[in-house]
Amino acid sequence: MEDFDKKTAIQPWEITEEDFIKKYKPIMNPDEVGQNFFVREDDGTTSEKYGWFETYGEERQKVLDVWEENPNKIWTCIQADGCTGLLAGFHFVNRIYYVITEIPWEDEDTWVRMYWECNDENGCVCEECDEVWSDEEGDWIQKPDGYVSPFLAYLKENPDRW
């Protein structure tokens, strides 16, 4: 387990999604409410997290307009090699969507680990939460006995991926 913990530790070029939100202040998508992420608070309420913008059409044009003003305010959600995260900059390969921030990034190699956060669609990775996301139910459910995060199981079965 110690070797696994070393492999999954935050690297110097990485930040958590929580730190990303605090430092760069990503904006909500004002035109497509369904493309905004929300976080469930401890008291059961939800609060805004940030919005995402499509890679095509009018939303892509909005991203390009911001990029022309200040390219360092654009982040690309990328999925590759079993990892999902935000990479500073406007990228094409393996892109899922774009995020716009109020505060520009400084280092183009900054990577935001998105899958380490509990209480999202990827399920718990801390192994301490009482609930997990169920695609079948479309909601949070009580964690079943013997539950193992699919992401952690994947990492343990594929150590060469890290």
Topology:
Elements: H1 2-8, E1 14-16, H2 17-24, E2 36-40, E3 46-51, H3 57-69, E4 74-80, E5 83-88, E6 95-100, E7 111-113, E8 131-134, E9 139-142, H4 150-157
Parallel strand pairs: 1-7
Antiparallel strand pairs: 2-3, 4-5, 4-6, 5-7, 8-9
Beta-strand percent range = 25-35%
Radius of gyration: 17 Å
Number of helices: 4
Number of domains: 2
Overall pLDDT level = 77
Q: What distance lies between the first and last C-alpha atoms, to the nearest angstrom?
A: 14 Å
What does this entry look like structurally?
This protein has 162 residues and is an alpha+beta fold. The protein has two domains: 12-114, no CATH class; 118-162, no CATH class. It has helices spanning 2-8, 17-24, 57-69, 150-157; strands at residues 14-16, 36-40, 46-51, 74-80, 83-88, 95-100, 111-113, 131-134, 139-142. It has a five-stranded mixed sheet. It is globular, with a radius of gyration of 17 Å. The two termini are 14 Å apart. The relative contact order is 0.16. The model is unreliable at 1-7 and 119-123 (pLDDT under 50).
Please outline what is shown here.
The protein is α+β, with helices and mostly antiparallel strands and 162 residues long. The chain has helices at 2-8, 17-24, 57-69, 150-157, and strands at residues 14-16, 36-40, 46-51, 74-80, 83-88, 95-100, 111-113, 131-134, 139-142.
List keywords for this structure.
162 residues, five-stranded mixed β-sheet, 4 helices, 9 strands, 2 domains, globular, alpha+beta, two-stranded antiparallel ribbon, disordered N terminus
